[in-house]
Specification:
Largest sheet: none
Distance between the termini: 40 Å
Shape: flat
Number of domains: 3
Radius of gyration: 32 Å
Number of helices: 6
Number of strands: 0
């Protein structure tokens, strides 16, 4: 916060100085209040990211220390080899469960972010109608060479439709 304030004051002082000729001839002129607001916004955004990262690291350190303390308490009970194997299996199962839950959340987010809005259903409907018409015209051709060409054209068409849908996302 102190560094941001110092940078803001330095920018303000720089804005108060007479401008060199090349800058004063610029069209449009530099607006140091806007520039100050932009610099402040960029710095705050960076500070926000750093604060989030710091909080995450702090939580992870606390969890690591708690885990270490709990592991130490388990081994202080002097378990035998079979109990140690059982404890490790339980820990591994818990770890795997947490990993799977994390992957499920990531996949849910990906699915949600890649879903088309309902307005695109009309697009799918019209593309399906076009597809049915093209398939109907394909059945009417009997020539083997025409059939190969129809297959190639159908594949190209499907590829273009796929690209079109991807671009709309």
């Amino acid at each position: 916060e102190r560094q941001r304030q110092e940078a803001s004051e330095a920018l303000h002082n720089f804005g108060q100085q007479p401008l060199p000729q090349c800058i004063s001839e610029m069209n449009p002129l530099l607006d140091f209040t806007k520039l100050n607001a932009i610099v402040t916004a960029v710095v705050r955004k960076g500070q926000h990211k750093l604060k989030q990262q710091f909080e995450h690291n702090k939580k992870m350190l606390m969890l690591d220390s708690t885990d270490h303390r709990l592991v130490q308490e388990v081994y202080d009970l002097k378990p035998n080899k079979q109990q140690i194997r059982s404890i490790r299996n339980i820990w591994k199962a818990i770890y795997n469960k947490n990993q799977m839950q994390e992957q499920i959340e990531i996949l849910k987010h990906r699915i949600h972010s890649n879903c088309l809005p309902p307005a695109f259903n009309l697009l799918d409907y019209s593309l399906d109608r076009i597809d049915k018409k093209l398939r109907g015209s394909k059945q009417s051709s009997t020539n083997d060479n025409d059939s190969k060409q129809q297959t190639i054209l159908a594949a190209r068409r499907l590829k273009k439709i796929g690209r079109f849908k991807y671009d709309l996302l």
